Amino acid sequence: MNVQLPMELRSQFCTSLNINNMDKINLGGFPFTIAFSGGCFSGKTSTMEALKSILEKDGYKVVIISEAMRETEVAKSGMSIDAIRQDTNLYFKLQKEIIRKKINQEFEAFNGEPNTIYLFDRAITDSLFYYEFYVDKSKLDTKRLFWISQYLINKASLMLNQIDLLIEFKPLKNCNVNDDKMRPAYLEEASYSEYTCIHRLNYTYRRKDNVHGFMSINLNKECSNNCIEQIIDKIKNMPSTGEIISNKQWATIFNKFFGFKVEAKEPKEYMENIGISYSFDPVSSHIMTTCNSKLFDIKKAAAMYFWYKKASAKDTSILDYFDEYKNCIDAEHKEFNSNYGIYAYKRKGLKYCIDSLLKDQNTRQACFCINNNVAMGEKSIDKLCTNTIQFFIRNGFLKMIVQMRSSNFLTLLPYDAFMFSVFYWEVYHELKKQYSELRPYNIQMQVSSFHCYRADYNRIKEELEPESLDFGNTLLSFEEFNKKEVEKFLKSKL
What we know:
Layout: H1 7-14, E1 32-38, H2 44-57, E2 61-65, H3 81-86, H4 88-110, E3 116-121, H5 124-134, H6 142-160, E4 165-169, H7 187-209, E5 214-217, H8 224-236, H9 247-250, H10 253-257, E6 261-263, E7 269-280, H11 298-310, H12 341-346, H13 349-359, E8 367-369, H14 373-376, E9 386-394, E10 397-408, H15 413-432, E11 439-453, H16 454-460, H17 483-493
Parallel strand pairs: 1-3, 1-4, 2-3, 4-5, 10-11
Antiparallel strand pairs: 6-7, 7-11, 8-9, 9-10
Helix pairs in contact: 4-5, 4-6, 5-6, 5-7, 6-7, 11-17, 13-15
């Protein structure tokens, strides 16, 4: 049985939670995960249940993942947590079972049903704290401790990065009621010490792993209705509520998007979906980083970078790396249309966007066009795939929207994501000089024809299986974008 909140707080959750005129949350077809973190007796479970109630009333499917501890065999024995902690081996057994259940729960949710909101009672960092803080390591085998410590630390690093929103709760005051054996006897003292340590862990891993969203809740100061509204508003405005293509979705994206076979005139069979919107994180997902992968070649990315930087329609160096561009020129058509550097640099499209936002950060005019009637005319064989690139500053975030006529998911999207990220960070760091509080946001893509050719798919399909993909760390820290360092690195790869 869970301990109950004090009456004055409990009554808040019993009131009707009506949030009027709430915009629909765009979950983008993926599961959305929220972890409720903090010490004991802070209102996590009550808030979670209230949030579930209001979201379900608005038509969302919500699944609560209960605290793993209460599902363990040790917890079901009826012993108090204080008694369990007196027996080092028994408590160590409990923590191993909790960790195993917690990790399984989260993996299942990350790959769970689309458009479903999963609410975790505690984050993986909570489990890390309870293991590190209460296990008497002097009474256990060193090798066993080292293995499980390293395993848990690595899993925390991986899994916290998959959480869409981490909500941290501060402990409640006046904890004078405790009828729950799985909470310590000295409840108020324990709640503050636990919160302090868990907060430090959350802070460390948030900085390290780029948690998408974070909130701090204090039910001593905020009424429950306000907290619920804040959580929902946070979800609505998070970058990660769109179609996020990150390393964890890259391998399974085909099951989501490609359900059609279309016969082209060549004929070339391809799979296509019309009118796709998605986004990717320019901090952590701007590049497919396995250099041995058929999906991404660092030399090709470097070649495209310098091709764009040269911004010359007559520069044919790209042909040494991309077969896709060989059909864009011939004896009659000797110049490229599809070198985006011409529009971004030579025609100063990026500079125009920067200048517009420096004059007025609320402008809707920070936009430059790439596609044009000449490129799309009958006499052109180099048809442009990207129509426009636009930037916004809203709510302290720099947002970039790319509208594309056509996107080949397999052969060109990884390199487009790379170069669009370069554009993004060049603009971001120029604006940061004036707007010191500016924060990065996902790059949103709007694609009319999102497709790949069957022949390309068959060529690399073995590598599209999730178990065969191995993505490393990001290639470059674009967050610390330095043009000279970027160019030095990329030149070394050519």
